Amino acid sequence: MRRPDGETESLRIHAHPGICEGWGECHRWAPDVYPLDEDGYIDIQRIEVPPELAVRAWGGAEACPARAITIVEIVTPAEDEPHEHAASGSGATSG
User: Fold this and answer.
1) In terms of DSSP H, where are the helices of the chain?
2) What residues contact 76, with CB distance under 8 A and at least 6 apart?
3) Domain 10-94 coded CATH 1.10.238.10
4) Closest CA to 40 of 51, 53, 25
5) Would you call 26 helix, strand, or coil by DSSP?
6) In sequence order, what are the beta bridge partners of 49?
7) What is the pTM of this model?
8) How sure is the predictor about 90, in pLDDT bands with cuts at 50, 70 and 90?
9) Shortest CA distance to 75 belongs to which of 13, 30, 32?
């Protein structure tokens, strides 16, 4: 899966709070995308990231040492109803 262009593509992301080890690297890269709870652990499960935050969100997912964040899909404006095809590990990028 390629990195989003940051202009037209949004991302669908699945975070795995049970895997999160509280490193906070995702939040350092994209604080507007990855909120942390009071203990420093990721506080979301599924999110659609707008194009203007997509590149930073991708970087935050890749920076996660615990691999607790999965980029499920890159969504382009031409796609009417995107499908979650990568969540089962068929090429998804985690971070």
Assistant:
1) 25-29, 51-63
2) 8, 9
3) no
4) 25
5) helix
6) 11
7) 0.76
8) very low
9) 13
- In degrees and rounded to multiples of 5, residue 11 shows phi and psi of -120, 150
Both ends of the chain: CA-CA distance in Å? 13
Domain spans of the chain, in order of start? 10-94
Which are the contacts of 1, defined by CB distance < 8 A and separation ≥ 6?
A: 71, 74, 86, 91, 92, 93
| pLDDT recorded at residue 77 | 84
> Locate tokens 């999160």: which residue?
20
Tell me if 35 sits within 8 A of 43, measured CB to CB.
yes
Instruction: Read off the pLDDT of residues 17-47 as tens digits, 9 standing for 90 and up.
Output: 999 999 999 999 999 999 999 999 999 999 9
